[in-house]
Amino acid sequence: xxxxxxxxxxxxRPFDKxxxxxxxxxxxxxxxxxxxxxxxxxxxxxxxxxxxKRLIKSNPxxxxxxxxxxxxxxxxxxxxxDVLGLDKTDYLERRLQTVILKKGLASTAKAARQxxxxxxxxxxxxxxxxxxxxxxxxxxxxxxxxxxxxxxVKN
Length: 155
Hints:
mainly alpha; Structural Genomics Hypothetical 15.5 Kd Protein In mrcA-pckA Intergenic Region, Chain A; 7 helices; 48% helix
């Protein structure tokens, strides 16, 4: 069995008051379970930025491939400067949990998370039970709540 590596890194200064306060606000706004989810989002954004830095000197065709991939997941990108300007909040806005809250299918972020983990949410007619699922733009309008099935009572 292959060892799974962490998808994030912990902060260098664990007791930095400003960072902790910012993370608490973000955690509350997006209804996250723990700060590890914030760190994962930071790691994803930094990976995207690193790819963009490598593509600065490359041809426009390779740049457009990166831009189209980021635009499919809903990030408003048109140049390398836009990619380098990405923030963890931009990435967190594209999570299924946040999209459900924005659409009004749930009253709070915690309620949205609970609906997802209880398998009540359909994305493109398939159940998604991960609140961290990044919703592509094409599926954004295909998000709905699973309908209850009535069981027939035998006499």
